[in-house]
Fold these 2 entries.
Entry 1:
Amino acid sequence: MENGLKQRLVNRIKQAGAFDVRVADPNVGFEHALENKHPLDIWELCKSVIVFAIARPPQNNNTYIGVYAPWPEKQRYLGPVPPDLQSVDYAMQRLAGLFVSSITLEGIDLLLTDGYNVLWGIPQAKLAAFEAGIGVYGRSGLIIHPELGNRIILGAILTDAVLEPDHRLEGFEPCKDCDRCIKMCPAQAFDPEKPYPHSWSRETCTAKRSQIAEQGFYCHNCFAVCPAGKYADKELVCVGKSQSFFAPHRTSNRTLDI
């Protein structure tokens, strides 16, 4: 098992800007993977799944996004930035995807240099993050990190290197006594009678988000109202200890009257 490699990999990825980095064993857990989405279905030679998280850049709740592209097209055409959306918020949102890619490339470079094979851009990064212990599933279906709450963006790399795996988080239950996302959900996509993470319906959520998007808005309520995370209520800052350029702040609680 390449323990030395794992530490070098974690260090490299964190130096590139990740807040947290962990490893999942594709042979352990992943029982909730969708059909053909298990890491071993994607790549049968996979021995380790490396998952990292950066803090999500600031976003305004229910932000105007301009012309709407139907969900089947899998893309969103950003329109004019409204006056109440600060330019730094908009710019950082656009840069976040590039930031994740740059961190991913750092990890890939180290692994390839050491003679290992890699695959990236995998689906179900949230499941990989859960299995690796980056966070737990919240009522909203989002991964909740102990420090950053649900304000994270995930990246993942599959490799044939055998790295010491981390494990699911135990004893971390941020949703146990909280139902803010349930109360604020315009889709009523939550079933309070079911235990989390099974209380959230992806289908119901997606249908309502599509309807809202047709009006030129983006529903972000479950991010905006979640109190979890050490940095949830801070303004935009650079989290020095992780060298992450994107740290979360409390977003607006404006909601659509739907």
Entry 2:
Amino acid sequence: MIGRYGLDPMSQRILVWLLITAVCGSGGCASPRRGEYQSTLHVSIAEPSDQADQLWEAVQETLRRGRFQIDRVDRAAGIVTTLPEASQHFFEFWRHDVDTQRDAWEATLNPMRRRVEVSLTREGDGPWTQLAVVVHKERLTSHDRQFNSSGAAYQYFGESLPSTTGKSQVGAKDDRWLDCGRDSAMEDYLLREILKRCPSKIASATESAPSS
């Protein structure tokens, strides 16, 4: 309900979901096409080779262009990972770390972050046989703060307000990142972008595999 000085926490949640429903219901965001997404490709690329070098560079360049900060690069293990990155808001058109309008609105209304794992698999000293992309997404959760005066608005994101459950102060140490599973749409997008940056001989040698 709307009080004298603002919205209580429950009303804030209701308002957020009403906004999401209104945007999506008006055609502002498309429903995920989970059945059409893929995150894995079969490949046959000798390692080491010029083609392997080019694919390895394509993976890293794609992540950098997506504004992901690369964390681990281990060619012997065939693994590239990134640090968690705050997901773009709907108006950040210069970024591309979410791939649907629904995800962009979700990140705008509630802090989200994503991290990426790209792996190339092979048996022993044989060629790389599989390219896989996994995008993990997480949502920030924090205790609801008491918001019952006009002055509290200036402190709402600080650490001086008590929580609605009785905790005397709520700070960053109380925040938690909740695992929200994988972002299939972004996995599919990154996979396609990696292939775009590969020579045609690599791209034509790949064979689609079902999503994992």
